[in-house]
Amino acid sequence: MKIEPNSTVNFTVKTTAKSVEPKQKSNEPSRGPRTATKSSDKIAQKINRWFAPIGLSSNAEYVDYNAKSVAARRHQDIRKVKRIENLNTIMSLATNVAVADVSEENIDPDWFYAFIDLAENIYTPEMQEVWGKILAVEVSRPGSFSLRSLETLRKLTQRDALLFAKACKLASRKSGDTVPQIISHYHQRKTLSTLFFNTKSKPINLGHFGLSYPSLLTLIDLGLIMPSEIESAELPLDQSIQFKCGESKLDIEAKKHGVVLVYYKFSTVGSELFLLSRRQENKDYVNALVQALSMVFKIKVS
Question: Which of 12, 88, 176, 186 has the largest count of CB atoms under 10 Å?
């Protein structure tokens, strides 16, 4: 977020020889400049507080080249120490991640050093935990995360990560499929018998479950979700298909011909990062999904 500091602008007004009567002073004290000064002081304090850990201060005066060189070396040393601390924290977190199966295959050296270059600049504890999980999973199952996923994750802010976590709670995976999807509604393809009937359900308002449309667009812009809704193939009659949403299992069986599901599909990068999410569904969304699909599907939840 870009914050521009408050600034004071002096206006110079030219006057003619014509006399101007001075304005009467108001009895009420002026609060504008004082408020602006307090605001500027508060911003300055925050800026100094952020720059202090890297050895810089707005009050410091670098009068000559030697003083500047000393400040530059100190700044570089502090940054190097912080990077080492970041890597040490992520490594410690990774060693405490429980992984079921560990492959005998080694990770790709290029992947490892690319990971190091990116992970050393992760400072937020919550994001360090995510990077620790990535390292643990990649060591146990090499090839789980692509370099593209690492680069995308590096661009994510903590707010973006929380937004993606909300999307993961609405996502389900069809049995035998590794790509998550967020089901929004169904559609019954037109036939002669349904030509004059409404065959499309009302989409679920995902905003009621923490994923508003602007939030969805943000995830699309980040490359975590595909840019448009997708229709599934027609679901056959009298054949149950299982979806898993968190810990809930949904067995879905079409009651009518020509019925398809409409959903938002996670991208390849989004699918990889989905592996890091907790298997916890949004129960209110699951209930709304069952209600929305029950018109054309037999649904069993377990």
Answer: 186
Instruction: Report which of 302, 288, 259, 294 is spatially closest to residue 182, judged by C-alpha positions.
Output: 288
172 neighbors 244 (Cβ within 8 angstroms): yes
**10: in domain:** no
Task: Give residue 220's domain range.
Answer: 164-301
pTM of the model: 0.73
Tell me whether residue 116 is in a domain: yes
Are 147 and 192 found together in one domain?
A: no
CB 170, CB 209: distance < 8 Å:
yes
Tokens of 105: 């295959």
Domain boundary among 137, 155, 173: 155
d(CA 93, CA 116): 15
- What residues in the chain have per-residue pLDDT under 50? 1-23, 26, 192, 195-198
* Structural tokens at position 56: 């810089």
pLDDT at 213: 93
274 backbone dihedrals φ, ψ, rounded to 5°: -60, -30
